[in-house]
Amino acid sequence: MAEKDIPGIRTYDAPAGGWGALRATARAVREQMDAGDATVTLLRTNKPEGFDCPGCAWPDKKHTSTFQFCENGAKAVTWEATNKRVPPTFFAANKIGELWHWSDYELEDEGRLTHPMVYNADKDIYESIPWDDAFARIGEILRGLGDPDSVEFYTSGRASNEAAFLYQIFAREFGTNNFPDCSNMCHEATSVGLPPAIGIGKGTVSLEDFDHCELIIAMGHNPGTNHPRMMGTLHEVARRGAPIIVFNPLKERALERFADPQSPVEMATLGSTPIATTYLQVKIGGDAAALKGIMKALLEMDAAAGPGSTVLDHAFIREHTNGFAALAQDVGSATWADIERTSGLTEADLRAVAEAYAKSNATIITYGMGMTQHRTGTQNVQQVANLLLLRGNFGKPGAGICPLRGHSNVQGDRTVGITEKPTAALLDGIEKTFGFRPPATHGHDAVAAMQAIAEGRSRALISLGGNLAVAMPDPEACFAAVRGLELQVHIATKLNRSHLLTSKHTFLLPCLGRTERDMQAGGPQAVTVEDSMSMVHASRGKLTPASEALRSEPAIVAGMASATLPDSKVPWMELITDYDRIRAAIESVFPDFRDYNERIRVPGGFRLPIPPTQRVWKTASGKAEFLLFRGLEEDLVHTDPGVLKLTTVRSHDQYNTTIYGFDDRYRGVFGRRDVVFMNKDDLAELGIEEGDAIRVETAFGTGKERRLDNVIAVAYAIARGSVATYYPEGNCLVPLDYHDKVSGTPSYKSVPVRVVRAA
Ligand SMILES: Nc1nc2c(c(=O)[nH]1)N[C@H]1C(S)=C(S)[C@@H](COP(=O)(O)OP(=O)(O)OC[C@H]3O[C@@H](n4cnc5c(=O)[nH]c(N)nc54)[C@H](O)[C@@H]3O)O[C@H]1N2
Ligand SMILES: Nc1nc2c(c(=O)[nH]1)N[C@H]1C(S)=C(S)[C@@H](COP(=O)(O)OP(=O)(O)OC[C@H]3O[C@@H](n4cnc5c(=O)[nH]c(N)nc54)[C@H](O)[C@@H]3O)O[C@H]1N2
Ligand SMILES: [Mo]
Known about the structure:
It contains 33 helices and 31 strands. It is of the alpha/beta class. A 6-stranded mixed beta sheet has the order 5-4-17-16-15-6, sandwiched between helices. It has a 6-stranded mixed barrel with strand order 24-30-27-29-28-31. Strands 11-8-7-13-14 form a 5-stranded parallel beta sheet, sandwiched between helices. Strand 25 (654-655) and strand 26 (658-659) form a beta hairpin. Helix 1 packs parallel to helix 3 (71-80), helix 7 (131-144) crosses helix 29 (553-564) and helix 8 packs parallel to helix 29 (553-564). It folds into 3 domains: 86-185 and 409-515 and 549-579, Rossmann fold (3-Layer(aba) Sandwich); 189-403, Dimethylsulfoxide Reductase, domain 2; 644-757, Barwin-like endoglucanases (Beta Barrel), CATH 2.40.40. The structure holds ligand MGD (2 copies) and molybdenum atom. One ligand MGD binds at residues 55-56, 72, 186, 219-222, 225-226, 247-250, 252, 282, 284-285, 287, 368-370, 404, 406-407, 647, 649-650, 654-656, 749-750.
């Protein structure tokens, strides 16, 4: 698309996948590891006796197939299994104030943390500290705070079920339900939006359903980058001729054309397979309107077909749902003019989707952050459920809802108790198992936690992984907030910016990664994780740990807990000698994990119950509910023509706040991240040329000027009125309280902005 010669911006004509992906994998491996180690490591990824890929939460074919090649999985694995190290001498030589000026890429590229460290404010450096001293001091400080609700227990979704379970038991015995979680920034709209609709806040499809579906509608996700193993599945579906309809404001190459690196023919012939049969460039934030348009068309088709119509599944609607009449009334009252204006799509486009949908006897709707990270995230998800319910697309082969989860165990962490709003069953289960009554008062999610920290109500932050202050909106506010804390504890594999936001007492505790051997008193241990499709399976690291001083996440949590809670009812040290004991406790608290230890020993593991697959609805009414969204988009509508909608996305070379490199190959960006993707007509209207230095400003009153400077405009195939830039650079444009009021998910994907040429 580049018409002008701009450094690092060129057209990428090739399909996604293919030889480009193989080359990029080889480079990732070379930069981080010896080739020999790397081969062994990569071959063990996602195999029954190996470890679960830390890259994404897409499931594996029975965990047994041949090596599933995936470029970004290889990056995630080599980034963790790197030969590079960050020993105490590194910290002695580099003051925190100096490290602050390093880029996020440079910080993590230093390698793996090797020793527990504590911040020395006088010298502005981290110094090594023996594990037991670190635990003792953390315990003393926590006990000294007085109020348990002034402590925030953050979880990032890499933590295993075993680590996350112990962690929430620790926090609850300490006395709080403050569980900010990366899921709050991610699929909370799913966790909160789906239970009232279908009775469970998770996806309902299994991998086998993709073999039987007759249509896929893919909304707001970019699998070529973020769920690359899903590309193999989409490739198969496309090759057997089932239509795939994509809703995405940006043209994403992998959703257009993909060459499967597992296919010798495509690799040899430089061939590729078209993925999307229809690609609809919906406006940012226009999905609810588009979904209502499809439903409106569908209802009209049904009425036109007269009695006995099979456009809707009337028997299913009658037997299994509530609220159909109200939905029909609401959808009917939306006008095509409003739907077209809000979605940026035409009535004809949406009618064509309705026709394809009416023809399909088994439809899967897949969706990602493009749907959830909006002020209407919960409503977006509920409209997806409505559309599926209209044709009974639950509880039959090849049909269902498929949220694409983020971190490889983000779903499992929630299942084993990381939630700020515990149910009575959870509290009872913990009391029965451990003999203490946990607090019932609701705690903080991520936004509420950061607000409490900013206001001084919370005094300590424990982070089980992640890079919270960088991942959240409004870095200026978050950085200042966490620096004012009394205590921070970071359990991490690699150095990141959150670790440099030191406060009075700051500890950096290095842990084992997924790829590494976890040796406890009872022998080598496996952990378990739950993928996007509720399959729970074991993951066993095989590599020699990056340092002898590393401890496992469960061991670190147990160490902190026993030092903090001298009268604890939980046998912390016993539990970690053999993780079967932790799993037995999980089973005791959560009955769905019956025979946990036996069932994870079966290759591939087991599936947790998903009642909608049996057409069982665990809602208050016992039926699936059509839930209304009275409107088409968020309430904050900007009619000013100069206001555009900004979305923040991941590049191909990053894992959330981890920056592996500076290319975004499929979007034609090489060696830079300072870009804003814009529609060429919007550029023309604003008198901006491609390559011009621009500034992006948040276009609504937040009491504070928010701007992204030092970026350039890049012409891209993106919907009119929509612009995109990278996360986390764009986070400065998002106010902390700019979120979905129902789920608390920050609206990272629809920020009203103005774009001006830089002075
Ligand atoms: N390699 C790699 N893998 C990852 C991650 C990573 O950073 N790197 N992150 C992991 C995590 S935690 C997560 S949550 C997932 C994220 O996976 P995705 O959900 O794919 O994440 P994003 O990059 O945020 O991309 C969102 C997609 O939505 C589109 N989009 C933006 N706004 C809208 C909108 O208003 N409507 C619609 N329909 N589409 C829109 C964007 O163009 C983009 O294609 O991936 C996980 N896997
Ligand atoms: N603007 C904008 N902001 C966003 C998003 C967006 O799309 N746009 N997406 C949001 C989403 S979906 C998410 S999930 C959050 C991500 O938020 P987080 O989960 O907090 O962030 P990550 O970047 O995944 O965390 C990376 C760090 O995790 C640590 N780590 C890696 N592996 C391990 C391990 O095995 N154990 C431990 N203990 N630590 C480990 C490393 O130190 C690494 O630096 O960001 C959110 N922020
Ligand atoms: Mo995520």
